[in-house]
Structure formats: C-alpha cells, structure tokens
Queue: 4 jobs
Job 1
Amino acid sequence: MRFILRGKQLIDGTGAAVLPAPLLLIDNTQICAVHSGHETPRAWGHVDRLLDYSHCTLLPGLIDAHVHLIWGGTADPVADLAHESNDLLLLRAADNARLSLFAGVTTVRDCGGRAGTTFVLREAIARGLIPGPRVRACGRPLTPPGGHCHFFHGEADGLTGIRDAIARLADEGADFIKIMATGGGMTATTNPGVASYTAGEIRTAVEDAAARGLTVGAHCHGVEGMWHAVEAGCRTIEHASFMTPERAIVYDPRLGERLVARGTYIVPTLPAGYHPAARLRRQATRTHDEDQGLRARERREAIMATLYRMGARLVYGTDNGVNLTPFGEPVLGLQLMEQLGMTPLQALHSATGLAAEALDVADTLGTLQVGKQADILAVAGDPSQDLRALTHLEMVMLGGRPLASSAPIHWQDAAWHSDTPYEDSTRTAYAQADD
Ligand SMILES: [Zn+2]
C-alpha cells in the first residue's frame, strides 16, 4: 500500500533540527519520499490514503541497544532463572517484546539470554506471530567457565573454546557476538573490576566474529577489560564503568581518549539500578555501603558526561530485564542521557540514528530518510523540548504498519515523573530546563 503520513513536525533521527509540516510518502514498508509543506508534491502522483497525525511530532521508533528480554526486571532475575524453564523464558520475552513495542521501541538488541530463546522470539516476531520490536540477538554471551552470566550456558574457555562458541552461535543465527570481558554485578562469584579474558582472547573473538560478518559487543566494568575491548576493536562497550580491581570507580584519561579516538560505541546502560538508587536517595538514613553505592553511581555518570563532552559515541541502552529495571519505560533512559549534557535531540539521536550505526542496521533503520523502513512514532507534544512527550504516544508504526494505540497501562516509579529525578545539586540542568 502507498500512503501519506502527515505530522506537525518531524525529528529525523540524524540529530538535525526539527522539520516543520512533514509529509512522508510510504510505500509498503519503506519511506520513499520526505517533504516539508502542506501541499502534496505533484511528483508523488496519485496516493490513495492519508494517515493524519498533524497534531503530532513524528520521529523514528526507538532503538534500545541493550536489553535482556528473558528477564522480568524483578528483584532477583538470576534467582528466578534457576527454576524457570526455557518455555517460560520465551513467554516472558514475548511479553517484554510487546511492552517495548507499545512504549515506542521498534528495535532491541538483546544482550544475552539462555539457550536459543531469543532466536526463537526473533523468528516469531519476524513472522508476525506475536507483536514485538525487531530483535537483534546474540543468544548466549561468551563467558569463561563460572564467569559472569555463566547460567546462560555460553561458557567458552580459551582460544579454542571461543572459536567453537562463535561458530555455534553463528550457525544458530546470532546477529552479533557478546563477550563478557569482565566479571559482573549479577554474578556474585565474579569481580566486575577484573578482566575475565586476556587481550589475545578478546582479539580472537573479534577476528573470528568479523570473519563471519559479525561484530562484538563487550560487557566491561573493569578498566583492564575495557582496554582489551577497545584495542581489539569491539564495536560496542557495554556499561564501561571504569572500575578498578578494588571495585572503585576511577577515571582513566588515557582510556577515555582512546575510546573517543577509536570511535568505540559506548552503551552506558544508565537505567540499570536507577530505581533502587532513586529510592535510596529519598531515604532519610542510609548505611555506609548504600552511600558508597550511590557515590559510585554518581562517579560513573560524571565520567560518562566527560566522555560525551570529549566526543564519545554514547548509545542509548537500558539493560531492561535486570534487577528492578523493567521494560516499558524508555523515556527514563533518554532522560538519563539528557542529564549527561545531551539536548533532547541528541538524546533521541543516541536512541535512533546513532544506535542504528552501533547495531549495523543504519542502512535500513534509525532515521526517517528515503529508503529506510517506516518505523515511526507519533507523539503529542514536542520531544525536542521535553522528552516526556514520548509518554504521550499516539501511534507506533512498524515497517509501514500502524499499530492500534493499545498501549498498556504501565505504572511507573514516581521518581522519574518529578521535575528533578535527582536531588543532587550537580544535576540542575534538567530541572532548570523544566521550570
Ligand atoms: Zn546487560
């Protein structure tokens, strides 16, 4: 079907200024012309139908570069996993996919699940069996025996183990390779500040993946693991916490400069742990450990703000699914990007055009330009002025197909609805912009 989509204004996802009075000509799944003005260009010829959202801002569907669809964002997803079948994980992943799509996320990059669940989910969505965003899946992340997220069963030991695991995942249809370059907070037996693979092992993973046309995303908290990942040429670094083996957050300026020079995409996953931290901040009294945790979080955010000022490519990713980080609230992650010093348009760019580059899908997704898939949101209000406009979602279009706006009622933690999500005086930018 050929039709015209009309909006009040358009954010194209390239980071460019807002375009007034947009008309988009959509043929089947694809955008085939973009025009600004009230008259339909003659060259478009006869068009049967008009989808009129002239009271709305049009923008690309969001791309979340880091989720775990099989997890429910409960208090302890790892404990849940121990007594849940793969069938149940698949059904939960389907539910999370639906929540994401109806909240405006049209592409997700799944950064790890058990068995082949995320591949099956991707297939079911692609076939139209269930509603959901486009899924880019790594399947099981590579990790050393007993390493971070070993319970996903992606253990790969040494060079041979890594090569075998990548070959298997590529056969199963992995869209990219995820490797755990350090320990992680969700696997208590590991140290997030310590590298879990050698520099040579990470390099082998990147080379082997590249030979199969795949990029590598590296989970990294520790500085040593981050060095391995950036030097090996990993496409993305997830979390990037600048952690020492003693688990202190300490900025390494040489590493920061190297990340910028290499153009490594960094996915800071700021929403992970945001709600518990916000709750702690509201508490009248806190333990020493709780205070330390809050300070570590603030240091990480300050480092990300520094990297952004230096020109680092920060990509939107929520880590939805991990502890108390539920699906269905994409605006929170955008607001947290804004607090690093991004304008709303820059935050949206990190979740559209830039994210598409990081995911290797920029030829078809991420921006509202000719030749791209028509993954489009219509929202009341102006997200280029206030990102919260994205909660007033009127229409989600996936591949040229408008979906009924049956967005689920999704109660949010009140913290992020307030004008000052942080009480912290160093973060006044957002509060002022809102006054
Ligand atoms: Zn993750």
Job 2
Amino acid sequence: MTAPTRRVLLQLDCDPQPSAFDAIVAVDAGVDVLLPYGGVSPQTVLPLVHGAMFTRGGAALSQTAIFVGGSNVEMAEAVCAEVTQAFFGPVRVSVMLDPAGANTTASAAVLAAARHLPLFDQEQAARCRALVLGGTGPVGQRVARLLGRLGVAVDVASRKLQRAEEVCAGVMEKVPHARLAPVANASTAFHTALESSDLVVSCGAAGVVLLDAAGRKRAGKARVLIDLNAVPPAGIEGIGSGDKAKPEGPAVVYGALGVGGTKMKIHRAGIEKLFGAKSVVLDAEELLALGESLTAPPT
Ligand SMILES: NC(=O)c1ccc[n+]([C@@H]2O[C@H](COP(=O)([O-])OP(=O)(O)OC[C@H]3O[C@@H](n4cnc5c(N)ncnc54)[C@H](OP(=O)(O)O)[C@@H]3O)[C@@H](O)[C@H]2O)c1
C-alpha cells in the first residue's frame, strides 16, 4: 500500500525573513511539509515554481501548492503573476496570495460590514457609501477594491491626496466599474465623505488615531464602523479591539480582534482549499467569496 501523498506548501515571501504567522497558519491548516523561502522576487521565483511543478505528476500535483506573502503588496502581486504565468496545461498547482494579510483581513472586514449593510445586493450596494481611512496601505487598498467591486461608492483617504489618487487609479485599473474617490485627511471632501458614509473602515498603521471622538460625531450617518488597528490607541477613538457587532447608538462597531476571528478562518480555509485541486488561484475576491461561504447561515 502506498502512503498518501503529503501536502507540501511553498511559502514564497518577498520579505527577507518569511512570515512566522503565515507559516503557523499553514501548519494549522493541515500542511504536512512547509518550505519557506524569503527574499523572493519576480526575478528569482521561477526556479522555485519549476521545482513545485515538475516533481510530482498527475493527481499528486494537487498535493503541492504555493502561498505568496510579504509586506510589499506590489512585489507579491508581481511574484504571483510570475508564478501563474509559469504554468501550462495540466502542469500547475494552486496558489494563494495574501501579502501582509491584506486579502484575508479586508475580506473579513467586508464580511463584518455585510452583516449590517446590503453589500451583496448589487442594487442596494450601489446606494451605499464607504469611507476607507488609511486607504493607501495594503489592507485599505484591498478593502477599497472589494467594496468597489461590490458597487459601493468608496472614498479613499490618505494624508496625501496624490497617494489616494494613485490607489484609486490602481484599483480602477483592475475593477473598471468601481466608483472610488480620493480624499485628503481633514479636507472638506473628507468631512463630506465622513458625514455621508454608511460605513467607515479604519485601516491606518498600528497605533495611529485616524478618527477622534469629534470625527466620530461627524460620522452620524454611519451604520457600521470598523477599526482594524489592534495596537492602542485605537484607530477610531472609543472602539475596543475586542468589539464585535457592538451596538453604539444607531451604529454597530467592530475592533481588530472582533474581525480577526473571521480573518483567521478565511486564511486557514484558503490554505485547505489549495489542496486537492490544481488550478485554484485565491486573491482578494476569491477569499471574500470563500469567507462568505464559511459565514453563511446553514440552509
Ligand atoms: N485584524 C487583523 O486581523 C489585522 C490583520 C492585518 C493587519 N491589521 C491591521 O490593519 C491595519 C492596516 O494594515 P496595513 O498593513 O495596511 O497598514 P500600514 O500600511 O502600516 O498603514 C496604512 C496606512 O496608514 C497611514 N498612516 C501611516 N502612518 C500614519 C500616521 N502616523 N498618521 C496617519 N496615517 C498614517 C498610511 O497612509 P497615508 O500615508 O496614505 O496617509 C498608510 O498607508 C494595521 O493597523 C494593522 O495592524 C489587522
């Protein structure tokens, strides 16, 4: 009797040191053998992909998969593109892209918001407006992209208008129907966005306050406020990191840990989904769909 083929995951990280977090999630998701590589770039990735493609044939190839991570999202995207372009015919493996945890975290944030707002109803989503604070970081960009794809009007905030403009242009290149508008923090446009948003998602750097108590008062129309920063002080003043669908006046609020459980579920389920199939590619949209299937009430 032959032993079952072991699950091998290549962890390709663009940072010099591969993420311990991503490694542990992979092990917890049932990976038997983890091969972590750091400092991976589009220029150096091909031999690693070939190593994964050409060692196992047929059905056994479905027990090899690739995870692409790292803190540089653009670099990780370029690595992922090189990986998928190397495949041909049946000689391919499944791939998941989650640089800086951005895809899984953004998916979890959108799913939290969708519990209270009709984001998965195209017509109703088109009537929703969202403000993404710290919208230029890895997580903020993905939140903007996912909401934009669902049809929500999204204001992307940054300290620098030009950064926000670049992010909006980058997202709209991928999602041409997205309605994204750049706003500079504390500008008139920012305050208008704050006052008219149904959803505020704060994706600023750890320990940075992006919305103080006065700002929160201006966000009176918002039905959902989400703060993804887990490091005190809170990104949105008054939100506790453990808050999860906590009612506050007419709104509900979520803190980073309140969203983090769903993020972890999506991350683990994503890794599990890579095995047993050879052509799965999981980017933000696929991970959001996976998360939706995990959190859907049983029928
Ligand atoms: N809950 C979870 O499971 C989970 C998972 C991953 C990440 N996170 C958290 O999610 C948040 C976003 O992550 P990220 O990697 O996208 O963040 P990031 O790249 O570190 O920062 C996001 C944005 O914050 C703005 N920013 C940075 N320093 C600032 C300052 N001093 N004042 C005002 N704005 C500042 C920057 O935008 P501008 O320069 O354009 O203004 C930056 O692009 C972080 O707090 C992170 O810890 C949570």
Job 3
Amino acid sequence: MTLLGAGAVLGSVGTHAAAHASSAAPTTDHYESERRLSSELPAGDAAGPYGGSYSPPNELDETALDAVTIPPPPNSGPVEVEMTVVETEIAVGRDNTVAAWTYNGSAPGPIIRATEGELIRIRFVNATGHDHNLHFHGRHSPIHDGWEPVPPGGEVIYEIEAGPAGVHPYHCHTMPIDLHISKGLYGTLIVDPPGGRSDAHEVVLALTGWDVNDDGRNELYTWNGVAGFFEKFPIKIPAGEPVRTYVLNLMEYEPVGSFHLHAETFTVFPAGIGSQPAFETDVITLGQMERAMIEFHLSDRGRYMFHPHQHSIAHRGATGWFSAI
Ligand SMILES: [Cu+2]
C-alpha cells in the first residue's frame, strides 16, 4: 500500500499508514456558531478560522499527535511497556494549557499494541504526589486488574494476557476516578487476532474532554487530546483504500459521546471484537469507555467531516476531517 505525504507520513504500520495534510479549513457559517460558543471559554481568542480557543495551539505542527493517532506496528511476541505517571502542563487549545496528569507525558497516553494471547508486561511507576494506578479493560487475571492505588513514588508490575482481540481503553482507577480520568490518565490498547487483520490505513481517534477551569465540567473537547487538531490538519487517506479507525469515548463528565462520518458509511465491530461487523451505519453512539473498530473506504476524492453528534461537543473542539486524496 502506497504511503503518501512525504515528510508527514508517520508511524507506518506494516503495510498500514495514514498521514496528515496541512491545509486551511473552509470558512463557512459553521464557524459562526463556533465563534459564539468560544466566548464562553475562560481563556482564548474567540476569533480565527477554526473557532479561536477550539483551535490547536499555534506551535503544534501536523505531526504533533502522531504518537497517539497512528498505531504502532502489529507484533507477534510478548510486549514490554514502561508506564510512568507524570504531572505536566499540556497545551490543549489555542491559549489554553492544563495541568494534566499523564501516562508518559501525553494525554491520551501511548498506544499499546499486542497480539491476542501474548503477555503484556507493564512496569508502572507513580512519579507524582498523588495515588494512581493503571486499569485495563478487556479480559485478564483479576490479580492484575489495576484498581489498587499505587502511592507516590510507588512501582508495580502488571502482567496481563492480551485479549480479547479488539480495542480496549486503559485508565487510572484511583478515587475520585472522574477527576483522575478528566485530568488525562487514559489511553488505547489494540489487540490483534493471531495472524493479524487485513491491510488498511489505521487511525486511533479517542474522544476526550478538558476541564480547563477546574469546575467539574468540560470546556474543551478533542480527538486525541488537542482541540481542533484534525480540523486544522485533516487525516489524509488515499481515496478508495481501506481505512480502519479505532474510535474510543474516553470523556469524563459527559454521559455519552458519538462519532459521525459525513458522506460515507462504515461497518462497526463493537469493542473491535469479532471477525464480522455487527452492522453498518454513519453514527455510532458510545457511553463512557465504550469503543468500536470501524472500517470504510472513502471512494471519492475530497473532504469528509467527522464529529460527535452532540454538537455542543463537536463545536467545542471535536470536529475533524478525513481528506481522501
Ligand atoms: Cu490517578
């Protein structure tokens, strides 16, 4: 499968790849509503083509989110992971920085990938002043379920057998859990079936929210951690070639999220489990920590918008584009 966008092609996944293309978003009435909404934010410039505060920080380039967007290559053996909880400032929108709690310095944390049945061995270090831990969804020994608090400076080894084949979130499970998740302690585990999946351009899209002003509610929403990122930097896909997207709802403080793709339908594998899709649609609705693997082709060249169909979320940073080239 041909890789596109030299210089912006990142994280080739075997024969899988996706790339970001930089181009200006269209100016339409769509943005008028964003400008109105942006005035409610505690910080930020309400002007701008992407909706002011709902735009990515100016210093980020099109590669800034590759590590949490492009899955690592499939692998057939045991997986070793170093996971350290660190507190760090993250620029999550133009003129908006949060004091985040993160796995390895980013939110979402690193994409972990393993083959079903293989051992994932995680050395977990809590390098913060609060209790934290690391809990995976999916199937594994309850002894390594990761709900027990690990104190500041603590270290623990989690050993889980990857499974079932699918896409599973991980997150901190320390009380108060809503706070620990909202501050950034979450990420994605992809489990491949033995023998792997069919060739496709692969992308992870994790819906998240940021409580910028610490009032227990989200003010910014993102795909993969930064407001407006994929609106400014569309995800570039060769027209007509298969696309596999792992979609996760990792938002705290919202009962439900969703993913809607414009101008095309997709097949859905709930939690990524199973060899045959459960149904075909253009919107999937996901409760907290729900996720799906979806597959589609973008047959015609052009831009295909995606966003949650909760528009108060979509308009506050969670609208993006696939660009079929
Ligand atoms: Cu925590």
Job 4
Amino acid sequence: MTPLGRQRPALVTSLPGPASSAWIDRLAARECPAITARRARRAAVLGAADDDPIVWEQAVGANVVDVDGNVLVDMTAGFGVASVGHRNPAVVAAGAAQLAHLPHAMGDAFPDPVRIRLLERLAALSGMDRAILGSSGSDAVEAALKTARIATGRDGVLTFSGSYHGLSYGALSVTRYKAGAFRAPFAGQLSDHTIAADFGGALPDLSEIGAVIVEPIQGRGGVRVPPAGWLAGLIDAAHAAGAVVIFDEIYTGFGRTGHWLALQSPALRGRRPDLVCIGKGMAGGYPISACLGTAAVMDAWGASKGEALHTQTFLGNPVGCAMALACIDELEVLLPQVAKKGAALRASLEATGLTVRGVGMLLGVVIDESLAVSRGLMKRGYIALPAGESAEVIALTPPLMIDPDQLDGFCAALAEVRTELSV
Ligand SMILES: Cc1ncc(COP(=O)(O)O)c(C=O)c1O
C-alpha cells in the first residue's frame, strides 16, 4: 500500500466532518473572530452549504489527515512551508535532538554553534555575506527595511502594486495586495514614506528612495511573473540611484522555483539584490526567517555597542536553526527535481486548455470562479487556495516531494470540478 505522505485522498466523511465542526465550535468561542474563517454555524441555522475549515490532526509528506480521519492532498504545502514535505523525518529528528539538547540560547547576548553553522550554510547557498535571523517572514522584511535605512540614510521606500510582504506594521507599510482590506483600518498609523509603482511597469524617480522592495514573482498577489528583463532593469535603476534592492523571497526562496533562491535565475544575468528575505519553507514547519545581505549593506549597522539595535528574544532559536540545517540537506536532494516536476504539472494542466503562470513549483492556474473551484477540489480531498487581487488564480505550491501520482489525481479532480461548474 502507498505510504501516508504519497497517497491520493481518502475521505470517510463529507467535509467538514463532525469532529472538525465540533472543534470549530470550540475555536469560535475562544479565538478573535477575525482570525479563522468560519461559516458553519450560520450554515447550520440556514441549512446552506457548510464550508467551515477542516481541522488538521496530522500531516505527512504531501498528505494531511483531519480530525475525522479524512486523508487529503495538500497542494499548498501549508502556505509554502512544507517544501520538504510535512513532518519530514530528517527535519523532525534534527528538531527533536536539538530540543532535548539546547532549546533556547540568548538571542544577541549568547549565541550557540547551531546558529553559527546555519549562518555559514545560508551564506554558501545564497552568496550573501551576512544575515539577521527572525521568526516570521514579516520579521525578515522589517529587518531588511531597517538595514536599507541604515545603509542609505534615506527614508523613501518603493514598493509595487499587488505586493504582499506581511502584516506587521513595517511590512504592512509596503504591502499593496488588497490595499483596502489590509491597510485601511491602520492607514493613519502606517509610514507615509512609501510609494508604489506598477509591478512590471515603469519606474518613478528614485532619487529619494532608499529601499526598493520586490517579490521576484508575486505569490499571494496571484503568482505574477514580471516581464522578461524587468527585474534586471529594476536592480540597475535602483543601484544607479543609490537605493538598496530588497528581494522578498519568502515565497520564492528555498527551492520553490528550482533554484535555492529566485535571484539565481539566469534571467538576472548575474545581477544581485543587496538584501534577501527568506522564511516559510526554511525549516519545514518551524517559525524561522532571515534577512540576508551583502557585507557592504549589512556592515552599515556598525558593531553592537552592547545592546543590539535590532534583536528579539527568540533570535536564532537553536531548534529552528537545527531544523533549517536539516531542511537544507533535504532540499539539496529535491532541488534538481523541481523544474521537471513543475513542468510536468504545468503541461498536464495546459493540455486541458488552462492558462498556467509561474515558475518551477510556484504555479497559478488562471480560472474563473476560483473560490467555487477551491471548494470543489476540497470536496474531492485536494487543498488548493485562490490567490490574486481578484482571486484570478488557484495557487499551486505543493510539497516539492509530492508524488507524480498525487499530481495526476489533482489534475483529474480539477477536470471534474471544471465540468461540474462549467468553467
Ligand atoms: C512574499 C511574502 N513576504 C512576506 C510574507 C509574510 O510572512 P509571514 O506571514 O511569515 O510574516 C509572506 C507570507 O505569505 C509572503 O508571501
């Protein structure tokens, strides 16, 4: 029998099942209502379609098992985190060993060898000299914005339409994805030093700009790939104006596009950003992130004078660092397969008349009624979410280890859903 992790869906209840619904009731009583989308209570009253979330019990490889015992296939890798597969045994073993040995060191005060090994490995794979570690993607973005400010002495930041850089205040100030929804309630408290240009379009005057922040491929913004040559031109223009270029590779990094980082794509013809943010897939499920940078830019911070100007309680947490090191080992094996596997998935989808955008295993299927399509897929045991300003794509970022048979099953399920919905 195919091992869990590489199985096609096996559903034992309709979704969400009764155990999921019971947990969602308990969640509803105790979690801020703005966090988890829930509709079942209303549906139970009205008898309408129930599209509450399922509640995850465990996840292995490309499979998720919910609290009702349904086995699903995760085409999101849990927001792009489980690139090496959920509960990757080598990553879990590294985390467990570290947990038993030294679960916490002391941020900027007392480091530990695992953090130092990770910093060395990150430098080797990225070509960037230095790093600031963090816990979330937003942390990495904040560290990059601060570094650019320190390095250039300029307040101005250029960001792009459709961008998603996280929701903490600094990151939100440069996020433009669904501007009204995410920014409007806090607009009065956000930095007014930020200007936005069209992603892939003409650039404004950069003379007052200290940082240009860009996703090489926009993820949540709808898997948008900029026109050929645009990123290279952006780097040239920013550098000519004395601005620092930040690549936000929180989605594209750690193997998703078939390179360690998208900045290694030949399309950049050797150009490099000054700072790179990574997170998500970095440790296979442990919250850790990094802002990587060149010595020229990072060293502008100067030496710590005893109390670090930028730090966190959990900076460089040893468990996260150990898991990230194991994750890098795993990715070394998976990386060479990404382009081929992504191309095969893309070809299967395009063969059915669909338009697919993206690179490697970061793909967006352009489709009408993406929300209904996502629900239809879910009912067949495939987890895939809409993305884009107008939810114009279904984003596909499965674990890189996903079995080709699971991808075939997904394509067949999508074909069924399209027939059912006539899209
Ligand atoms: C490109 C990009 N940057 C930043 C973030 C924010 O990361 P986090 O949610 O870990 O703060 C995300 C999250 O989706 C992202 O896709």
